[in-house]
Design a protein that fits this description.
Helices cover 4% and strands 53% of the residues. The chain is mainly beta and 113 residues long. The strands form two sheets. It has a six-stranded antiparallel β-sheet with strand order 1-2-3-10-5-8, with no helix packed on it. A four-stranded antiparallel β-sheet has the order 4-9-6-7, with no helix packed on it.
């Protein structure tokens, strides 16, 4: 039997929550940072939005078109991004699945509930 750990997290044991149709999150949070594994289905769309939290991330697999402020770029596995708080951003998925890791500072209160 596995003993719970204060330090190690198995993302596969975290319940997924839907951010938008075809976009799900698995959220892991500490006191000062929050990580989110983001699974992006083919052709999913995340509408333009912003939040006060700084957000950084890296694409782990797949690709998608990402707009941050007035810049749009197709991101691929290994590409990273940094979004200052308050800057609008949106996403349009490609024909395949994508996975990325987002990091927020401070943690998003709306994701904790």
């Amino acid at each position: 039997m596995n003993n719970p750990s204060r330090f190690f997290i198995d993302p596969n044991e975290i319940e997924r929550r839907e951010l938008a149709p075809g976009i799900t999150l698995r959220i892991m949070s500490g006191q000062n940072i929050m990580m989110s594994m983001v699974e992006i289905a083919p052709k999913a769309v995340l509408n333009p939005h912003s939040h006060s939290n700084e957000q950084g991330g890296i694409v782990l697999q797949g690709e998608f078109q990402f707009t941050i402020g007035d810049e749009t770029k197709t991101l691929h596995a290994g590409d990273a991004y940094m979004i200052p708080g308050g800057v609008e951003h949106s996403l349009v998925a490609s024909d395949g699945w994508a996975l990325c890791l987002d990091i927020f500072s401070p943690p998003r209160e709306d994701y904790k509930s």
